């Protein structure tokens, strides 16, 4: 766990990303909009197509993908200053290794280099570990979205956070 790096995912990462996505949806269902079953149903070819859209970033230990996050900059002229992050996941053996911080710092640096001045994300109100991580990085809670997600028919609330990264 000494060679942690940040970079965009490539279609060659499809099988590794699929595996992490299934693991994350299974072990941390509050962090994903998809279920474990939905993640398992996505073929490697389908995952390759998703990755090819360019909205996924990862943290690697050497050449091994150990975490990923969605990164979606807005494209309209009036909202181009904003980008959304999520889902954000690091495999359990890398919790506490700095991998999550490296990935988030990579997203922040990439966003800033491309003129994005505000990052936004949603997090389940019961996801205490994620909330603590985002708040340590100075993300600010700005709203609560009630009934934003339903898991197994149960209503879940999300917090909306943002981070201003303008220099």
Please characterize this protein's 3D structure.
Helix content is 32%, strand content 36%. It is α+β, with helices and mostly antiparallel strands and 167 residues long. The chain has a seven-stranded mixed β-sheet, with helices on both faces. Strand 4, helix 4 (99-113) and strand 5 (118-124) form a beta-alpha-beta unit. Helix 1 (14-27) packs across helix 3. The longest helix has 15 residues, at 99-113. The protein is globular. It starts with a strand and ends with a strand.
Features:
single chain; 167 residues; alpha+beta; 7-stranded mixed beta sheet; 7 strands; globular
Q: Give the terminus-to-terminus CA distance.
A: 31 Å
Shape: globular
Give the low-confidence spans.
none
Helix content: 25-40%
Q: Give the percentage of residues in beta strands.
A: 35-45%
- Order of strands, main sheet, comes to 1-2-3-4-5-7-6
Mean pLDDT: 95
Q: What is the succession of H and E elements?
A: EHHHEEEHEHEE
Rg = 15 Å
Number of distinct beta strands: 7
Instruction: Give the structural class.
Output: alpha+beta
How many distinct helices?
5
Main sheet? 7 strands, mixed
Topology summary:
Elements lengths: L3 E5 L5 H14 L8 H6 L2 H9 L3 E6 L2 E10 L8 E9 L8 H15 L4 E7 L3 H9 L3 E12 L2 E11 L3
Parallel strand pairs: 4-5
Antiparallel strand pairs: 1-2, 2-3, 3-4, 5-7, 6-7
In short:
With 167 residues, the chain is of the alpha+beta class.
């Amino acid at each position: 766990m000494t060679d942690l790096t940040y970079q965009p995912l490539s279609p060659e990462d499809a099988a590794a990303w699929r595996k992490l996505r299934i693991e994350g949806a299974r072990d941390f269902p509050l962090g994903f909009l998809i279920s474990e079953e939905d993640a398992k149903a996505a073929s490697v070819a389908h995952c390759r197509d998703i990755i090819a859209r360019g909205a996924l970033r990862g943290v690697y230990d050497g050449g091994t993908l150990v975490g990923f996050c969605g990164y979606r900059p807005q494209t309209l002229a009036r909202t181009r200053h904003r980008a959304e992050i999520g889902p954000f996941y690091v495999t359990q053996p890398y919790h506490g290794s700095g991998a999550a911080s490296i990935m988030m710092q990579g997203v922040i640096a990439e966003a800033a280099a491309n003129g994005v001045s505000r990052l936004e994300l949603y997090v389940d109100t019961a996801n205490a570990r994620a909330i603590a991580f985002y708040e340590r990085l100075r993300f600010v809670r700005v709203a609560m979205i009630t009934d934003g997600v339903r898991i197994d028919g149960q209503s879940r609330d999300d917090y909306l956070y943002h981070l201003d990264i303008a220099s």
